[in-house]
From TrEMBL:
Residues 208-229 have a biased composition (Low complexity). Keywords: Isomerase, Rotamase, Signal. PPIases accelerate the folding of proteins. It catalyzes the cis-trans isomerization of proline imidic peptide bonds in oligopeptides. This is Peptidyl-prolyl cis-trans isomerase. It is an enzyme of class 5 (isomerase). InterPro entries: Cyclophilin-like_dom_sf, Cyclophilin-type_PPIase_dom, E_coli_cyclophilin_A-like.
Length: 248
């Protein structure tokens, strides 16, 4: 993963609001369990897509891990690498304006953000495993769904079905092992994110559902997710406190 200087990162963050709607709308997210192809909503959520592609273009997502999976809810990544002992947060570029146009239906990809701050999304994203519109279209002024899985949803579901430690999905690793430091091979990792179609607007080919957002927020789905799974002795649990949908 390329490391940028603070000055460069600040410059990119400051310029995001001036990036036009990207024409690179279909990407392959290759994970260690298979490839997920996503059609990005470049026309209707342009700032969010531009933000996501900025991380793609500088290889920030390569070797990151899927750090959260909640059964029948979400699969979340884009925030951490594993250094052999603990999860380590990647360098972020700055926040992006919330664009809650589309509903958080099953198969959509959306941005994670801080609780109580609608415009706080940076690098982290999540796949909706189920129809989460009742909660996530309303909560925190709505979560921005900025793309739709067009192939590879079975990979998302396979990740969601893995055993986990403190909500981190683990390969060949179960809760009885959670006090032992795992190896890199035990994490679901992002191998690459590749643009495969730069058509002017591929968004129109996807059936999208408008957000059900209302003026009244709903309770946090699933309650306090920090209580599930086991504990890891290498400070994973503490790091995951920063890695929720709300990045607390």
């Amino acid at each position: 993963m390329k490391t940028k200087s603070l000055l460069t990162a600040v410059g990119i963050a400051a310029s995001l609001s001036f990036i036009p709607a990207s024409n690179a709308t279909i990407v392959d997210i290759e994970t260690s369990l298979g490839t997920i192809q996503v059609n990005l909503f470049d026309e209707s959520t342009p700032k969010t897509v531009a933000n996501f592609l900025a991380y793609v273009e500088d290889d920030s997502y390569i070797n990151t891990v899927i750090h959260r999976s909640v059964d029948g809810f979400v699969v979340q990544g884009g925030g951490f690498t594993f250094n052999g002992e603990a999860l380590q947060a990647i360098e972020t570029k700055g926040t992006v304006d919330n664009e809650p146009v589309w509903s958080n239906q099953a198969g959509t990809i959306a941005m994670a953000k801080l609780s109580g701050d609608p415009d706080s999304a940076t690098s982290q994203w999540f796949f909706n495993v189920a129809n989460n519109s009742a909660n996530l279209d309303n909560q925190n002024d709505g979560f921005t769904a900025f793309g739709q899985v067009v192939s590879g949803m079975e990979v998302v579901e396979a990740i969601n079905n893995l055993d986990d430690c403190s909500e981190t999905p683990m390969v060949n690793y179960d809760t009885s092992d959670c006090s032992v430091v795992p190896g890199q091979e035990n994490f679901v990792s992002i191998v690459s994110v590749t643009i495969v179609d730069d058509a002017t607007n591929t968004e129109d080919s996807v059936q999208k559902v408008p957000s059900t957002k209302t003026s009244v927020p709903t309770p946090t789905p699933g309650g306090d997710s920090s209580s599930s799974g086991g504990t890891m002795s290498f400070a994973l649990l503490g790091l995951l406190g920063l890695a929720r949908l709300f990045r607390k």
